[in-house]
Write a structure and sequence with these properties.
about 240 residues, alpha+beta, 7 helices, 10 strands
């Protein structure tokens, strides 16, 4: 891939957006049309589109084309806020689809992450969250079953998981650890998020602890990169403290 050509293609697309006063939800020309407009090959155009998708300038609708993205939601990395609450605060219409809610035995990965014995019963909750009608995140959450007895009685299509844990089980959330990476969607992830295969996604994984510093949750979440930006607060340090 010629980096100079890719950069030129990115600039051309960005200029096209500005020159044509495109706004959120407006459609870009097809890949073929962009090739004809500026003389780039298909690989260069696709590489530029992927970059702008990761950046959050555009998003792709499977089988439809590329569109201008909405203003991104800002998520604070230092805040153990639920996705549900984050979207509510941003005045978004939200709904959840529960793909799976079962009890399973912790495998090696889950046991290691949650610091529990191999085979311990955990709840596995898989959901897709929708924001203003568009698939936003695909998440898998694992919770220690003994801490939240009869949790399966609640329908997390309609209610917030964290709110339920706090109000029904007196859970006090202290914080947690989280890692972020960029990944690309496989066929199943693309299907549930209604995106093209190999679309860029933000991959979050981590654990959450209660007020006693006990791990109660292990999660893996994929978020469409055009919808969210992650931020972290920097605090000034006095020289005397160094």
């Amino acid at each position: 891939m010629n980096q100079k050509k890719q950069d030129e293609a990115i600039e051309k697309i960005e200029e096209y957006i500005i020159d044509n006063s495109l706004k959120s939800g407006d459609k870009l020309p097809s890949e073929r049309a962009m090739q004809d407009l500026w003389g780039f090959n298909r690989t260069t155009i696709r590489s530029a589109i992927r970059y702008l998708s990761i950046k959050g300038t555009i998003y792709t609708k499977k089988g439809s084309g590329n569109y201008i993205a909405k203003k991104k939601i800002i998520k604070n990395l230092q805040d153990a806020q639920s996705t549900h609450q984050l979207l509510l605060e941003n005045k978004k219409n939200i709904r959840s689809e529960v793909l799976e809610f079962v009890k399973i035995e912790a495998n090696k990965e889950i046991a290691m992450k949650m610091k529990i014995t191999l085979g311990t019963e955990v709840y596995k909750l898989s959901r897709v969250r929708y924001m203003d009608g568009l698939a936003f995140t695909y998440s898998r959450t694992y919770l220690i079953a003994d801490m939240f007895k009869n949790l399966e009685e609640y329908d997390f299509k309609d209610v917030s998981l964290y709110k339920t844990l706090q109000e029904k089980y007196d859970l006090q959330i202290l914080g947690g650890e989280e890692k972020l990476n960029i990944t690309y969607s496989d066929e199943y992830e693309s299907s549930v998020l209604d995106i093209e295969v190999n679309s860029p996604l933000i991959y979050q994984t981590g654990t959450t602890v209660d007020i006693n510093n006990n791990i109660f949750e292990y999660f893996k979440e994929l978020t469409r990169s055009e919808y969210v930006v992650f931020a972290s607060e920097l605090k000034r340090v006095n020289k005397e403290d160094l």
